[in-house]
Write the structure tokens for this entry.
Amino acid sequence: MSTLGPDVVRVRYTLGEDWTGDDAIFFRVLLSDRASKRRGLLQVTNRVRDRIVQTLEPAEEWGLLPYFEFRSESEQAALKEKAWA
């Protein structure tokens, strides 16, 4: 996923079920603080989401519904959640 460039620090994921019981993949995307600025955040998150879905094709290849959560480096530094490390 190097094509995600400097905007993405790392991507983690968990396999599970969504609230309806369907098989899902939950992506946790850690963004650089620069990419997390309000002005360009929607563009960055849309690009990242599209690139991951186009590359991995989770629904088509694995039958998994993709879900995304985004967080900035500063937010993670404050929250210190292990799942995001």
About this structure: The chain has one domain: 2-80. The helical segments are 38-56, 58-62, 73-79. DSSP finds three helices and three strands in the chain.
